[in-house]
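Support reply, case 0932

Customer input (verbatim):
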Amino acid sequence: MLSESAETGTTLSVEQIKKIKSQHENIKKLKVIILVRDAHLSLLQTENKHLSAELNDSKQLNNHLFQMIQFLKQRVKVLEIKLKKSSSFFSSEILMRQALSKEEEQNKHFKTDISKLKLSTISTSNALEILRNRTSAELADSETDSSDKRDSDKKKSSDESDTEDFSEEDS
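Our regenerated output:
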């Protein structure tokens, strides 16, 4: 079972032909495996590119987030300073309001005292007016009494003189 090759002029045995066919089949299988592996490698490379791009995006996002965190830390520091300032302002504001309310309370007491003084002044003024009126009335009464006394004294003296006149005429 020898077979002669027309091209080369060599003779091959059946076993050799089976081996060649087997090797040929193995080469075809290897070619398919290589094609599959090349396709798989191509897919892996594409996936690697996508993953690299995602990694770069993640790095950029990470950098951006880091910058945002730094900015927020600075902002927090600024806000803490402002908070301290405003809390001291509010503390002073509270102290000022307390002082103001104390002053208002004192003003109420002063107003009450002033009102009492006004009432006292009015009542003193009224009392003085009453005393003036009484004094005027008493002065008027005493003047009236003294003029009445003078009148009565004049009358007595004129009565006496009349009586004397009558007695002279009788004699």
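We compared this against your earlier run and they match. Two observations from our side: Residues 135 and 141 are 9 Å apart (CA to CA). Residues 14-170 form the longest helix (157 residues). Please reopen the case if you see a mismatch on your end.
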